[in-house]
Amino acid sequence: MTIVNVENLVKRYSDVVALDHFNLQIEAGEVFGLLGPNGSGKTTAINCMLQLLSFDKGSIELFGQPMAPTRYDLKRRVGVVPQEIAVFDELNVRENIDYFCGLYVDSGAERAKLVDEAIEFVGLQDYVRFRPKKLSGGLKRRLNIACGIAHKPELVFFDEPTVAVDPQSRNSILEGILRLNREGMTVVYTSHYMEEVEQICSRIMIMDHGRSLACGTQDELVRMVSTGEKVEIEVADLSREALGALDSLAFVRRVEYDDKVLKLLCDNGPHNLASVLGLLQERNVAFGRVYSEPPTLNDVFLEITGKELRD
To answer: Long-range contacts: 18-24, Cβ < 8 Å, 24+?
Structure first.
């Protein structure tokens, strides 16, 4: 079932086009990664889907139905964990979660049960009477998540939920998101940390300038680009002739030899490493440790956008 269907979405701010005929489809049960440099349109797209922003053209459907500002029946099925901490400093942990859960659940008894479950889920049992200003950054992030998921939504948007948290809290948050997904929630996840997206996302979109540039699984995205594996080989002695022969291989983009380590950047292809080792053996070049790294999601992002993710 298609949970999110966005077609030809256009959003302008005066002369700036934030979304340029943007399209997006997300299926039930996915952890969908939305990647793009700063200013690419990720948060604008999310806010339009949530009907927190109006848009100029296009259509948005959630759960197979047209989304509109007054579709509260659809909004009750959606959760949001924003990038900025969005809690009330005047309320303690339990009161904050109860307040946000109360926006969707009227029954006090049902809400109390959901709040308890959310507190346990994010591991805040020992902090229920704490106000946010007394919590660490990681604990505030957990509270932010609890407020967004307490009402048990079917679809959850996480907009950079691990910004400025310690590694332990980051791992806890990522494990929690995967647990939500296993329990049936569909997740839309944005991040500036590529390794997080590689770790948890089943499908990924790369966008820039308000448009989708590529979409697929990580393996599918890797096959879309020309960048291939990075090879490092320990070589005690390498002649200029052998180095030149390696550089002349059609699939080799760059070759370096420094401090007895041979480094090659290759085009995408299935037998690059075997060809390199074969050439060394033909020239009787002795070598030691061999390390080969396939193209990463960061390599894909850089080739497709021409930018570092954190720019």
So the answer is: 18/44, 18/210, 19/44, 19/45, 19/48, 19/55, 19/58, 19/210, 20/209, 20/210, 20/211, 21/57, 21/58, 21/211, 22/58, 22/207, 22/210, 22/211, 22/212, 23/212, 24/205, 24/212
- Tell me the pTM: 0.86
List the chain domain ranges. 2-222, 226-294
Measured in whole angstroms, the distance separating CA 234 from the mean position of its chain's CA atoms is 35
Residue 286 has pLDDT above 50, yes or no: yes
Please write the tens of the pLDDT for every residue from 232-275. 999 999 999 999 999 999 999 999 999 999 999 999 888 889 99
Q: What is the mean pLDDT of residues 69-90?
A: 94
**CATH number corresponding to 2-222:** 3.40.50.300
Architecture of domain 226-294: 2-Layer Sandwich (3.30)
Task: State the pLDDT at residue 311.
Answer: 42
How far lies 253's CA from each of 219, 226, 229, 250, in Å? 21, 10, 10, 8
